[in-house]
Amino acid sequence: MQENKKKSGFVTLIGRPNVGKSTLMNHLIGQKIAITSNKPQTTRNRIQTVLTDERGQIIFLDTPGIHKAKNKLGQYMVSVAERTLKEVDLVLWLVEPSTFIGAGERHIAEQLMQIKTPVILVINKIDMVNKGEILSFISAYKDILNFAEIIPVSALKGENTEELTKLIFNYLPYGPQYYDEDTITDQPERQIVAELIREKALRYLEEEIPHGIAVSIEQMRERNNRAFDTNSSDASGIMDIHATIICERDSHKGIIIGKGGSMLKKIGTQARREIENLLDCQVNLQLWVKVKKDWRDSDSLLRNYGYSNKDLR
Questions:
Q1: SS3 95
Q2: Strand 238-247's sheet: what is its strand order?
């Protein structure tokens, strides 16, 4: 009866910060939606993306890394990640290739013991180790939880990721297609644009300003060129985007702007290229920097920047 039906379901990616969740999700869906960096706690919200093929549909939920919260933003991030465990059909737990299982991993294992959802352990970053060591990593983890599967992958290099996709479909139920086949994400364009700008800021600011920044899109409006060349059938719109990078300290503002505006220009140039690829149009990106002291501990500012604290109550 089920040969004509397709699989569909919700899959969450969890793990400690900087373990490669966003990189893996981007690779599995074949498009960059979640921002990535080499700094922990890059993902702040739950990002929903969709993979649709002849086998069915997987809705991925990329969550913030589970960590010890130091402020209200951190509490929000952990709340989002832990709540998601109870709302999905399958959990992918990403870990780094190591025989040492630290307190952070054991905390996640304790969370997973409280749910009935099947868990696939994904040992990521195998491109960084000797292949002969992989069995020892599997052996170190296999007894701390009753895993449905254990699979080593490299999200960065794409190693074993198609096999992971097959495993995911194996564990999903038969069900309806939740999204149109052309849908890649339910994230608003404004939110993706803000995240792309934040990604470039994280990348180029190095360790000078770790995570005390947010990005607010003040305006995002298409400007049509046809008024300038009414005889051209190729005229396309230009997207005017005005965005503000929020930081917590006056000293941070100077670093973000850079000497003669050089750092802000660098962030804007790199972000604009990716935004143009995303929107498939020319983009005029204008960036400003504002100081909002201790915004990560302000309920009203967290809401303003897209981090609702209703989950913390």
A1: strand
A2: 214-223, 238-247, 282-291
**Euclidean distance between CA atoms 70 and 92, whole angstroms:** 26
What's the Rg (C-alpha) of the chain?
Answer: 21
Q: How far apart are CA 288 and CA 244, in angstroms?
A: 5
Fold of the domain spanning 7-171: Rossmann fold (3.40.50)
Q: What is the pTM of this model?
A: 0.63
pLDDT tens digit string along 172-223? 999 998 888 878 776 777 888 888 898 888 888 866 565 678 888 888 888 7
Encoded tokens for 285: 């990106």
CA–CA distance, 161 with 29 (Å, rounded to integer): 11
Q: How far apart are CA 216 and CA 37, in angstroms?
A: 19
Residue 120 has pLDDT above 90, yes or no: yes
CATH classification of 189-312, choosing from 3.30.750.24, 3.30.450.20, 3.30.300.20, 2.60.120.10? 3.30.300.20
Q: What's the mean pLDDT in 246-250?
A: 87
Residue labelled with tokens 């900087």: 18
